[in-house]
Design a protein that fits this description.
- By secondary structure, the chain is an alpha+beta fold.
- Helices cover 45% and strands 20% of the residues.
- 18% of the residues are buried.
Length: 71
């Protein structure tokens, strides 16, 4: 039986909070820096992986603001 953990990140530009739900076991490994996000969550979308990275680092830009920042 697999348990899941909700993970959130708030965009630094627009303030919108994003939430993804991932495997609790993989989340623990990710937070302990066991492996790269791509290796632990290969089936998740790039957007979900960015939420995970933003959650861990404390800095997140949502997809809409990321595009604005690049322009």
């Amino acid at each position: 039986m697999s348990t899941e953990t909700p993970v959130d990140a708030t965009c630094r530009m627009c303030g919108t909070q994003y939430v993804a739900t991932v495997s609790s076991a993989m989340y623990t490994r990710f937070m302990n820096r066991d492996r790269a996000v791509q290796r632990l969550f290969p089936k998740e979308t790039p957007d979900v992986r960015e939420i995970l990275l933003g959650h861990r680092s404390g800095y997140y830009l949502c997809p809409e603001c990321w595009v604005e920042e690049e322009e």
